[in-house]
């Protein structure tokens, strides 16, 4: 294999002095996407990528598309006898939002009908408490800049919107459907240049009124990177507001009695403030306040108290912390003589649901589940009852919705995805290995029957407390069916073992995450699953940072790397996209101690000339407003300059999509390119 000729990229003599350390940045000019030089370079990179020999692309494209014909179904949200849910039929590009009632099912929102180009996505939705109106949010072209609308459920007519600047906004309806609390950013003219993505506030909006007349409820003068949550109890009496600085694993929390103060000027009472814990509240139909918290319980616990005494000193454990399982969800079923509490858990990322006496918390049983997989949220009827709904998926099972009846103790299939697909014969094994410091780490390994070293993709994330739970993946199954192995490592930094597991991989502990990945790779090689020349790693976003660090720290260990929408310049990441909200996870280069952490692993700054690097594919998205593509652009230029070996460094740029949701056809193309690239460089023959 001859060395690939790369598009020329000038190297500027830019060196910053940060806390006495010289920090070179030769490709800073690539931070400007409008610079003609950047555009010319990107065009040349696109030509290079499209000329790459990826023989398996057509095979993977066809097989992934076929597997995605399973379609999808969402868990229902009930409002009286109406239920709201999403479904995607086999040939549809996006899930469609439906309502079902005594008159049957009907479409409330079809993103493709709104926009036949497929660029519009449904970001979220929230029906009012009576089910008569529904607020929904859509965005276009992957920018995730949600615009909020309200639709009349009976007529299907839009009665409100668009209201802009509603990215990541919860909607909390007051009874009657005439008003709701929500979160909106300040107008760009009111904030400093470069801070338009921040400065959120909680407002009260009355349907039909101008958003300019919304009543400011909360957030004025607080941290610019705060995210806010807001909810209103079923009876409309209790308002709760939470605030988190960026993505910090802690929140401040307030409640107000709307009977004792007005909805326009609620008198907020502090539940917790400046406490290093995450807490959520649920006002029960029985008059009790249920508290979901990891305060003094990194794996989570459920407590109870009175709404009149909501602060931690009054909490009483109802379901205490489990020594091994992480508490993920709960639901109250009170439509029988002895009400029960359903509690969702993950045990080393495998889902389970336990049944408890609501009054005492005593564990009295378990909800039967279809297998060893992942459980979605547990939903009950807001007005109570004896039924609950949840989603289930595992490595070979598309997500389906199940129904649990507390009167009979039985679980049954509620709705399967609409498309029937044949999946390959494959099994998933959970293995345990030891990391560099001796910590036990779990890994899910999916493969077809067989033995001997095989082309293997090792996937990881390791950040923000996000767990890597098992689930149906067309990409995984297409790879495994073609003869490969797919492994998912549950690295520190994630949420598989609770909040302490997360903290063991954040801030100054970030190197633990990289060590966990290296150890996973070494375990797969030592146990004969794969070999050095057949092992690839893959990750996106924070996982892109993971594999970027891995390829610079251990270029000898990996044959190929797929790096999607990555963070790679960890010295300047706060200056772009939503980076300023992540310094609570990574640290800030403005702080000397934290700069030292970042400087110790920042992938862009650890590229060295004369090193033989793995074959690397960067994939980025032009409308990504979370992680700017510049990270991959600069890193690709640095690696292409430094590469001493003959394995290619390629850059895939995609327009009109962003960091999150996309159409099925766009997902198929991206996945096919990734698998074909990895197959080419790990020796897998597809098709």
From TrEMBL:
Domain Peptidase S9A N-terminal as annotated: residue spans: 7-416
Protein name as annotated: prolyl oligopeptidase
Natural source organism: Microbispora bryophytorum subsp. camponoti
Peptidase S9 prolyl oligopeptidase catalytic domain mapped to chain residues: 472-683
Catalytic reaction annotation: Hydrolysis of Pro-|-Xaa >> Ala-|-Xaa in oligopeptides
Family note: Belongs to the peptidase S9A family.
Highest taxon, organism lineage: Bacteria
Bias type Basic and acidic residues, positions: 9-19
SUPFAM superfamilies, alphabetized: alpha/beta-Hydrolases, Peptidase/esterase 'gauge' domain
């Amino acid at each position: 294999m001859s060395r690939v000729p790369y598009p020329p990229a000038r190297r500027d003599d830019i060196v910053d002095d940060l806390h006495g350390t010289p920090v070179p940045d030769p490709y800073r000019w690539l931070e400007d996407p409008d610079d003609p030089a950047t555009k010319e370079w990107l065009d040349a990179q696109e030509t290079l990528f499209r000329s790459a020999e990826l023989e398996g692309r057509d095979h993977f494209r066809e097989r992934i598309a076929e597997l995605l014909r399973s379609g999808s179904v969402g868990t229902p949200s009930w409002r009286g006898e109406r239920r709201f849910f999403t479904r995607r039929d086999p040939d549809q590009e996006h899930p469609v939002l439906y309502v079902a009632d005594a008159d049957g099912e009907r479409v409330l929102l079809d993103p493709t009908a709104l926009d036949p180009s497929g660029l519009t996505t449904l970001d979220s939705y929230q029906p009012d408490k009576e089910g008569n109106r529904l607020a929904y949010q859509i965005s276009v072209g992957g920018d995730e800049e949600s615009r909020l609308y309200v639709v009349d459920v009976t007529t299907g007519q839009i009665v409100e919107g668009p209201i802009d600047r509603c990215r990541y906004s919860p909607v909390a309806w007051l009874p009657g459907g005439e008003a709701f609390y929500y979160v909106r950013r300040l107008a760009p003219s009111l904030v400093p240049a470069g801070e338009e993505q921040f400065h959120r506030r909680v407002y009260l909006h009355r349907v039909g009124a101008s958003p300019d007349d919304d009543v400011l409820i909360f957030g004025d003068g607080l941290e610019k990177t705060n995210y806010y949550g807001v909810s209103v109890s079923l009876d409309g009496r209790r308002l709760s507001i939470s605030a988190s600085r960026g993505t910090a694993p802690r929140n401040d929390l307030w409640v107000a009695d709307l009977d004792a103060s007005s909805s326009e000027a609620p008198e907020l009472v502090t539940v917790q403030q400046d406490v290093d814990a995450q807490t959520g509240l649920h006002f029960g139909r029985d008059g009790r306040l249920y508290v979901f918290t990891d305060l003094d319980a990194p794996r989570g616990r459920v407590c109870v108290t009175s709404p009149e005494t909501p602060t931690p000193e009054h909490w009483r454990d109802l379901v205490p912390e489990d020594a091994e399982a992480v508490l993920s969800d709960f639901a109250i079923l009170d439509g029988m003589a002895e009400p029960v509490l359903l509690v969702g858990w993950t045990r080393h990322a495998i889902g389970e649901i336990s049944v408890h006496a609501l009054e005492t918390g005593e564990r009295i049983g378990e909800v039967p589940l279809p297998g060893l997989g992942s459980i979605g949220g547990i939903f009950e009827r807001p007005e109570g009852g004896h039924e609950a709904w949840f989603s289930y998926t595992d490595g070979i099972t598309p997500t389906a919705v199940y129904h649990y009846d507390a009167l009979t103790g039985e679980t049954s299939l509620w709705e399967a995805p609409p498309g029937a697909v044949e999946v390959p014969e494959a099994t998933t094994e959970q293995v345990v290995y030891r990391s560099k410091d001796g910590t036990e780490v779990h890994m899910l390994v999916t493969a077809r029957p067989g033995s001997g070293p095989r082309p293997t993709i090792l996937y990881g994330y390791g950040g923000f407390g996000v767990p890597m739970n098992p689930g149906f993946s067309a990409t995984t199954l297409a790879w495994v069916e073609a003869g490969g192995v797919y492994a998912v490592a549950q690295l520190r930094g994630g949420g598989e073992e609770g909040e302490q597991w997360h903290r063991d991989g954040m801030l100054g502990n970030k190197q633990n995450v990289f060590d966990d990945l290296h150890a996973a790779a070494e375990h797969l090689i030592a146990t004969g699953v794969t070999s050095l020349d057949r092992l690839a790693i893959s990750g996106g976003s924070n996982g892109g940072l993971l594999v970027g660090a891995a390829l610079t720290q251990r270029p000898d260990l990996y044959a190929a790397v797929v790096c999607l929408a990555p963070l790679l310049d960890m010295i300047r990441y706060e200056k772009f996209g939503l980076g300023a909200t992540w310094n609570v996870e990574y640290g800030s280069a403005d702080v000397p101690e934290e700069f030292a952490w970042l400087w110790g692993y920042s992938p862009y700054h650890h590229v060295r000339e004369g090193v033989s690097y793995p074959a690397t594919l960067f994939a980025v998205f032009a409308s990504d407003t979370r992680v700017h593509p510049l990270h991959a652009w600069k890193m690709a230029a640095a690696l292409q300059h430094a590469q001493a070996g003959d394995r290619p460094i390629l850059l895939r740029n995609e327009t009109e999509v962003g960091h999150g949701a996309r159409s099925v056809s766009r997902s198929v193309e991206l996945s096919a390119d990734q698998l074909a690239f990895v197959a080419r460089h790990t020796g897998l023959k597809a098709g």
